[in-house]
Design a protein that fits this description.
Number of domains: 1
Oligomer: single chain
CATH superfamily: NAD(P)-binding Rossmann-like Domain
Strand content: 5-15%
Number of strands: 4
CATH class: Alpha Beta
Order of helices and strands: EHEEHEH
Mean pLDDT: 96
CATH topology: Rossmann fold
CATH architecture: 3-Layer(aba) Sandwich
Distance between the termini: 23 Å
Strand order of the largest sheet: 3-2-1-4
Helix content: 40-55%
Radius of gyration: 15 Å
Shape: globular
Structural class: alpha/beta
Length: 117
Amino acid sequence: MHRLDGHVVLVTGASGTLGREISNAVLREGGIAFRTDHRGEVGENIDHLHDVTKEDDWWTVIKAIEKRFGRLDGLVNNAGILHMGSIENTSLADWRRVMSVNTDGVFLGCHCAWDLL
């Protein structure tokens, strides 16, 4: 029995280790993993290039899912980054980039996908 038979699940950050494993788990459970990432090439491991910090990118991805599947059953806001360093050597720009990807990206994902979910 597949718990996700036919369910469409958007997975961000899908080219990373965790994103690949989440996508594979969705597939193993019979679901459809729509995989996005800001890097990589569309094809085997990525369905759409996507910068989670850009609202326009989110709307483009959501419209692509709606056109292709007509619905979205799950959203995995997996995209995230880490800045290694102490407070002394972390710039405000570095901090803002981490916060933009890790928090703004999650907000935008929920905000933009809400009506399709």
